[in-house]
Amino acid sequence: MRHPLLVTLGLTAALGLSACEEIRGKNQVDRAMSAVNAVDENNLSDIMLTVADADEAVNYFKRAAADNPDRMDLQRGLAKSLVRAGRATEAVPVWRKVTKSTEATNDDRVDLADALIRTGQWDDADAALDAIPPTFESFKRYRLEAMVADSNKEWKKADSFYETAIGLTTRPASVLNNWGYSKLTRGDYSEAERLFGEAVRNDPALFTAKNNIVLARGAQRNYSLPVIPMDQVERAQLLHTLGLSAVKQGDVETAKGLLREAIDTHPQHFEAAVRSLRALES
């Protein structure tokens, strides 16, 4: 008589265990899928901030942030993508929102200062940088500090910040170029030329620094091209810059010769140099 009861109890226990296992398995699958989705979302965000089209990234983060307005990682992604798309004015209020949240980091405050500088709000950028503890050190922070000091004509501070920033990066070409331009605006042409040369040595493809070297040499009435890497088109463009520098110095005949050389050097028709030469000859 006991056998049917035992069988019934056994079946009930087996069914109960089966249901528990099914629930446990479902929970494990849900957790696994949540983890996969989080990884996929993070990967997609990284892609949007690096290799995706800038405007496409803005649209992605706008949609995601609208659906999840309290998620600061999405607000942060939106602000970064707006800056990357050249829309710093739109990025500023987003960065302000991020920096006012409890999740704000010092990197966020630096990025706010960067967006403010891009929109010409130098005083606000200065205030944003001042709000960061002095113990927080990063390449970007000191690069921006140097630029703000430059805008305030605080030359000693600017030099100190530029030097510190260079020590915090393995790719200092852009900072060296900025520092050189600072020296150029101060009238320290020889030091500017040296810094531009350092920039080119660190990044031989940085044409802005090459052009700035020529400006520094022209300001010293040195109209020979520097010994730096350049292709034929770059050579023609640098000769054109030298010619314009000679005009500025009042050395008109030298300028004409440099412009003619620029026209002859360029592998194609060099309209800008042709116009400059015609203007001088007329």
Automatic annotation (TrEMBL):
The keyword Cell membrane does not apply. Keywords: TPR repeat. InterPro entries: TPR-4, TPR-like_helical_dom_sf, TPR_rpt. TPR repeats lie at residues 173-206, 236-269. Gene3D superfamilies: Tetratricopeptide repeat domain. SMART domains: TPR. The keyword Cell inner membrane does not apply. GO terms for molecular function: identical protein binding. It holds the Pfam family TPR_19. This is Tetratricopeptide repeat protein. It comes from Thalassovita gelatinovora. The lineage of its organism: Bacteria, Pseudomonadati, Pseudomonadota, Alphaproteobacteria, Rhodobacterales.
